[in-house]
Amino acid sequence: MNLKLQGKTAFITGSTAGIGFATAKSLAQEGVDVILNSRTTMKLKAAVVKLQHEFPAVSISGFAADFSKSNEVQALLKKLPEIDILINNVGIYAAGSYFESSDEDWYRQFEVNVMSGVRLSKSILPNMLAKNWGRILFISSECATLVPTDMISYSMTKAALHAVSRGLAQVTKGSEVTVNTVVPGSTLSEGAEQFLKTEAKKKGKTIAQVEESFFTEVRTSSLLQRFAKVEEVAHTITYLCSPLAAATNGSVIKVDGGSTGGIV
Ligand SMILES: NC(=O)c1ccc[n+]([C@@H]2O[C@H](COP(=O)([O-])OP(=O)(O)OC[C@H]3O[C@@H](n4cnc5c(N)ncnc54)[C@H](OP(=O)(O)O)[C@@H]3O)[C@@H](O)[C@H]2O)c1
User: Fold this and answer.
1) Residue 94 beta carbon below 6 angstroms from any ligand 1 atom
2) CB 253 within 8 A of CB 181
3) What mean pLDDT is predicted for residues 151-166?
4) Those residues with Cβ within 8 angstroms of residue 166's Cβ, 6 or more apart along the chain or in another chain
5) Which pTM was predicted?
6) Of residues 93, 107, 154, 239, which has the active-site annotation?
7) Domain architecture of the chain: domains with CATH
8) What's residue 264's pLDDT?
């Protein structure tokens, strides 16, 4: 299938690893010029070189910016070229007891997970509307509806994204711009792989045993009963970025392995 994405420019936040990097790869494969982002200049350079080597026909670049620092975000906004596709992917979480969480934990996650997309969309959406084409995606989480008791603050930030995304979609009425929310379930990013390795070592089990017990004891509602591959999430994101997905706007698209249930 030709997704008709050649010649577009995408900016993906938090994209030197995990779902963000897999999405960058998938978009580059479709002929999209990709701008990567992370806090770490070294990691960013390495990711740009790796992707450019793999996809010499498109332009790969990167901008370092820490989304927990508003001054770095303001500097980034001044540097960004015209963007056709904005993927608000960056997300951090603090797991632990609600009663022991600090105000700082809540504000930091809100700043990175929510304000990143708020600030970028405010800067980029007007131009998308002016040229009558654009794609904005907010990467949420199954936690927005599952709200695990040890991740209430993270879940709050993801639920907030749904409202921002739907509100911005309404601003696009009558145009060829779309704004949607993607809901991944438990996904095997480098962070998740590290979690499995650490748990396996701690419990004297194999990684496969830890993964199995995560789904039989923790994420019991998952129909997939395994971690999704980052590519499985990235492919859905890539399709939603394409002109082929023009009729999907203001929607919540699940790639959660069935974990959040419901019939809509
Ligand atoms: N993995 C899952 O199971 C899962 C499930 C549901 C939803 N999600 C959501 O999907 C998105 C991607 O998750 P992921 O697991 O793929 O992420 P990840 O592997 O943790 O990706 C981390 C990326 O974000 C960058 N980053 C971290 N903090 C940053 C900051 N403050 N400013 C700029 N960049 C920053 C990292 O680079 P540096 O460290 O170099 O800055 C790296 O490029 C997130 O929004 C997450 O909440 C993930």
Assistant:
1) no
2) yes
3) 98
4) 179, 181, 250
5) 0.98
6) 154
7) 9-185+229-255 (3.40.50.720), 188-227 (no CATH)
8) 84
